[in-house]
Amino acid sequence: MELSDHYIATFIHERSELLLEMERYAEEHHVPIMQLAGIEALAQLLRIQNPATILEIGTAIGYSAMRMAEALPNVHITTIERDTARVEKARDFIGRSDVAAQIRVIEGDALEVDNADLLPQYDAVFIDAAKGQYQKFFEKYSPLVPSGGILYIDNMYMHGLSDLDIKEVPRRKRTMIRNLKTFSDWILSHEEYTSAFFPIGDGILICLKR
């Protein structure tokens, strides 16, 4: 039996007016941000892990970075976004928040950013950017995660598309879904990681580095 949206909503915490404004902006301008159930779960998992540093791939308008910073008052977050308009909006929203000092926004393609511009190590990496590039993101940034660190990957379910036969997926999204499935198979057999899929929000994959 699937959980009802009403029941799930009873576990969603109240958000600040700024976060509500960001949610409205995202909906009006078709900016993808994490589903509420997903971000609540991610925030709780991060509280349990309690990382000192997080690297986020895919800032969008800064919503998830702010939610993570609010959950972890002492964390330092580096977040990367290639869309200039979204970078500007993210910096505006973050600048108006109480967690601005915890978040550094880097503008650039995450696959091209020089790792020398980053910290030498991150306790956690959160990947929420181009879904068809997840394996490339993982390969580029997982070396920055120490043993015992965790990589969190959002949108693994892709609104149900990942569960379909590739012939049933809309043609324009087939390459992305094919790459996502290839990544899933690759990481689940990876000797350096213990990985588990959590059917929360749009599906979160959690990879613990051994």
Can you lay out the helices and strands and say which pair or pack?
Elements: H1 5-9, H2 17-28, H3 36-49, E1 53-57, H4 63-71, E2 76-81, H5 84-95, E3 103-107, E4 124-127, H6 134-141, E5 150-153, H7 174-188, E6 193-198, E7 204-209
Parallel strand pairs: 1-2, 1-4, 2-3, 4-5
Antiparallel strand pairs: 5-7, 6-7
Helix pairs in contact: 3-4
Would you report the number of β strands? 7
Which percent range describes the beta-strand content?
Answer: 15-25%
Physical arrangement of strands within the biggest beta sheet: 3-2-1-4-5-7-6
Output the CATH class name.
Alpha Beta
Taken in chain order, the helices and strands follow as HHHEHEHEEHEHEE
CATH topology heading: Rossmann fold
Mean pLDDT: 91
Uncertain ranges: none
- In whole angstroms, the N-to-C terminal distance is 34 Å
Tertiary shape: globular
Instruction: Please state the second-level CATH architecture.
Output: 3-Layer(aba) Sandwich
Task: Give a short account of the largest sheet.
Answer: 7 strands, mixed
> Taking Cα atoms only, what radius of gyration do you get, to the nearest Å?
17 Å
Query: CATH homologous superfamily - what is it?
Result: Vaccinia Virus protein VP39
Count of the domains: 1
GO biological process, one term: tRNA methylation
EC number: 2.1.1.-
Binding site for Mg(2+): 128, 154-155
Catalytic activity: 5-hydroxyuridine(34) in tRNA + S-adenosyl-L-methionine = 5-methoxyuridine(34) in tRNA + S-adenosyl-L-homocysteine + H(+)
